[in-house]
Amino acid sequence: MSGTATSGGDDGRWALEARGLGKKYRRGWALREESFRVPAGRVCGLVGPNGAGKSTLLGIAARLVEPTRGELRIFGRPVGDPTVMPRFAYLGQDKPLFKRFTVAECLRMGQELNPGWDQAVAERIVREGNLAPSARIGSLSGGQRTRVAFALAFGKRPELLLLDEPMSDLDPLARDEIGSLLMSEVAERGTTVLMSSHMLSEVEHMCDYLLVMAGGRVRMAGDTDELVPLHTVVTGVTTDGRLPDALASHTVIDVRTAGRQFTALVRHEAPLDPAWQLAEPSLEEVLLGYLRHPEAPALLSPTAVPGHREEHAA
Ligand SMILES: Nc1ncnc2c1ncn2[C@@H]1O[C@H](COP(=O)(O)OP(=O)(O)OP(=O)(O)O)[C@@H](O)[C@H]1O
């Protein structure tokens, strides 16, 4: 983990720390006074169904959305603190680039606005997409515009990258290339990434931390390595069409029956019946279980709970 507690009272161990963070729109709460944290140096997948509150959370972190309640800290500083802005880059779903600018002019703007600008990195991303520096943004395809937006985000050399469904309009090759670039940034520079995505295979491949949301609430948060092994896929037989009583000793997240057989994703809280067939689920299976059942009891690992002391995070 790359973040450290720094002088001046800020605590760099937590890239994001939310306490009672809420956002209410006229039609209701988009984020319901939630508390969680994301350690620095991690790639955190932000997962949830449409309308879960993911963009709202990313918008609050990027200072585009004003919270109604609570507080969000970035690297230990309140999100409104002027020292926070240069430390993150945000890539929203609509990527608002100036359409009349050329690609080169966009990069020049990035250079002028950002003191730590890395022109070589930004140019490389543009070049690998075969984009002419003289091409106007308005003439580019959606995926090509996304590439320029990525060049601007990476060129800023941020400590925190806030990405709202960043790769949804990239072709498979560009997706693979930008994904690798993201992973090498994380490995080389300890950049923290908070990335919303509906592509569970992408989340499984890239993310080592999770924030699962539904209905404006956090349903699961923590280290993937800690969360996944708390679950088991149990297969067994029903009795007279009923699920076995012993299943009720565990938290059942998702259960399906086919003929006399049942398959359940459970959070095991006691030894599991040896008559059942047991398997460790993939991250994708766990995510699907929680997405299908947003009413399942929330699961936050200690690292994800603000105020919880975490020795190995220091
Ligand atoms: N500017 C806004 N004004 C009013 N309501 C809003 C606004 N932005 C979001 N909402 C509402 O807040 C809730 C959460 O929306 P949000 O965009 O954060 O969800 P999301 O998880 O990012 O969804 P998606 O996966 O579809 O992008 C939704 O019910 C949405 O209608």
Please specify the SSE layout and strand pairing.
Layout: E1 14-25, E2 28-39, E3 43-47, H1 54-61, E4 69-74, E5 77-78, E6 88-91, H2 103-113, H3 119-128, H4 142-155, E7 160-164, H5 172-189, E8 192-196, H6 200-206, E9 209-214, E10 217-223, H7 224-227, E11 231-237, E12 251-258, E13 261-267, E14 277-279, H8 283-292, E15 299-300
Parallel strand pairs: 3-8, 3-9, 6-7, 7-8, 10-15
Antiparallel strand pairs: 1-2, 1-4, 4-5, 9-10, 11-13, 11-14, 12-13
Helix pairs in contact: 2-4, 3-4, 6-8
Q: Can you describe what's shown?
A:
The chain has helices at 54-61, 103-113, 119-128, 142-155, 172-189, 200-206, 224-227, 283-292; strands at 14-25, 28-39, 43-47, 69-74, 77-78, 88-91, 160-164, 192-196, 209-214, 217-223, 231-237, 251-258, 261-267, 277-279, 299-300. It has 314 residues and is α/β, with parallel strands linked by helices. The strands form 3 sheets. The protein has a 7-stranded mixed sheet, sandwiched between helices. A hairpin with a 2-residue loop joins strand 9 (209-214) and strand 10. It is elongated. The protein starts with 13 loop residues before the first strand and ends in a 14-residue tail after the last strand. It binds adenosine-5'-triphosphate. Keywords: ATP-binding, Nucleotide-binding, Transport. GO terms for molecular function: ATP binding. It holds the Pfam family ABC_tran.
